[in-house]
Amino acid sequence: QELLVESGGGSVEGGGSLTLSCVDIQSRFSLCGMGWYRQAPGKERVLVSWTPKYTEDIYLEAVKGRFTISRDNTKNVVYLQMNNLKAEDTAVYYCGACKQGNLPNYWGQGTQVTVSS
Hints:
Largest sheet: 7 strands, mixed
Distance between the termini: 37 Å
Shape: globular
Number of strands: 11
Oligomer: single chain
Strand content: over 45%
Mean pLDDT: 96
Radius of gyration: 13 Å
């Protein structure tokens, strides 16, 4: 049973924008950090942005100034606003919740983002 459901992926031209959403379906993660990872073909899954419960948000250096993470605790949703998208942002984006160590304990199914140059 899915606990995290992502949406908002798609295909855009370079310079375009997309907003990803991740819903905590069962409202299980209100006390946890949540965020986004991405995995490009043939590459490892990497952290894009994370919003911890009590500390500052974290961003991959390559997306700083272009991506913004936010969280609506009333709706149990975490968003990733992606502006000025580049071809190198093309990947499957995964929502995660509740880190233990370096990786989240819970994952969504992923949503594809494709940016054409």
